[in-house]
Design goal:
Length: 322
């Protein structure tokens, strides 16, 4: 999405809404290597752009630049292109035209069309990233090939980039508070779970299912109805501050109870006060930001600034803790 903003005394600037995400490097042999150390070592051995270009298929993927951060960690920009590839062009047409065909444009002399890129901030095994048309799996694959080309130790390629799953979710709730609690169930499952677990918090959806079935004339059966129960709990901020404080404590208690009493059939999403999303298995750590655009992508320095701020927020709110 491209947004525009007008600053008094300045020309109109274009912005893109981007998603910042967090991953953690998990190693086959933990405690021996860190992703930051491997990236630094690879760049010491491969000092030119040509050396840091990895070719797989038609794509050329490269480490465009890397920068050390005084407070710790490194910033990195990865780019991807297909040499000689053309791009589609919408031709200029007259107001009287009733149809048109797309054209193509060859890349300019001395350059190629960008097919995607990724901005990273890596500190130890923590990875904050902002990408355009590149998936995190492709980032991992590029780094593994880069380490292999650098002739680092063999186990340097044996890592994955994982979403957060092993930190204390209840502890995170208490640190960040709870903004919303979403409980989900198909109607027949909700009815079945009501009888089995009606004293548990997730039994709320079961109770709703039971009463909706009663309205439908089927109070006790467990048929596979094509209906879905979705209950969203949030604090009503139109009430006074005292009531808001009570509501916040209640929803946090409910969310903690859901986490502690969950089973494999539970479907829920807990949205923390800072926007992190907790599901049954993982914490999805993301943030939406607006970054000044640079053609198809965004300004590198601005993206790096946002990633550093994002990391700082994660550190302050305990997301980075094991």
């Amino acid at each position: 999405m491209i947004l525009t903003a007008v600053v008094p005394g300045h020309e109109m600037a274009n912005y893109r809404e981007k998603t910042l995400s967090y991953r953690r490097a998990e190693w086959l042999t933990p405690g021996v290597l860190t992703l930051e150390r491997c990236i630094r070592d690879a760049h010491l051995k491969l000092q030119t752009i040509a050396e840091r270009t990895i070719v797989y298929g038609a794509h050329h993927v490269r480490s465009a630049k890397m920068k050390s951060v005084t407070s710790g960690g490194i910033l990195m920009h990865i780019t991807a292109e297909i040499p000689g590839d053309s791009t589609s062009v919408v031709p200029k047409i007259s107001d009287r035209s009733s149809e048109f065909d797309l054209g193509t444009a060859r890349p300019p002399s001395g350059g190629e069309w960008l097919t995607g890129d990724a901005f990273l901030y890596v500190r130890d095994d923590h990875v904050c990233m902002c990408t355009t048309d590149i998936h995190d799996g492709a980032v991992r694959y590029f780094l593994q090939l880069l380490f292999e080309k650098s002739k680092l130790r063999k186990d340097s390629t044996r890592f994955s980039l994982e979403k957060v799953a092993d930190i204390s979710k209840v502890k995170l709730l208490h640190r960040q508070g709870v903004k919303e609690l979403e409980l989900r169930a198909t109607l027949f499952k909700a009815t079945a779970s009501y009888a089995k677990r009606k004293n548990a918090v997730v039994g709320v959806t079961g109770a709703i299912g039971k009463h909706l079935k009663a309205v439908a004339g089927k109070p006790n059966d467990v048929t596979k109805d094509a209906l879905r129960v979705e209950l969203v709990l949030k604090v009503d901020r139109r009430l006074g501050q005292r009531n808001i404080a009570v509501g916040e404590k209640q929803i946090e208690f409910l969310a903690a109870n859901v986490l502690q009493n969950r089973d494999k059939d539970d479907e829920f999403v807990i949205v923390t006060g800072t926007g992190e999303r907790i599901t049954r298995d993982e914490i999805f750590v993301r943030s939406k930001v607006r970054i000044e655009s640079d053609g198809k992508t965004v300004n590198c320095d601005k993206a790096w600034e946002e990633l550093l701020e994002f990391f700082g927020r994660l550190y302050d709110t305990g997301v980075l803790e094991q």
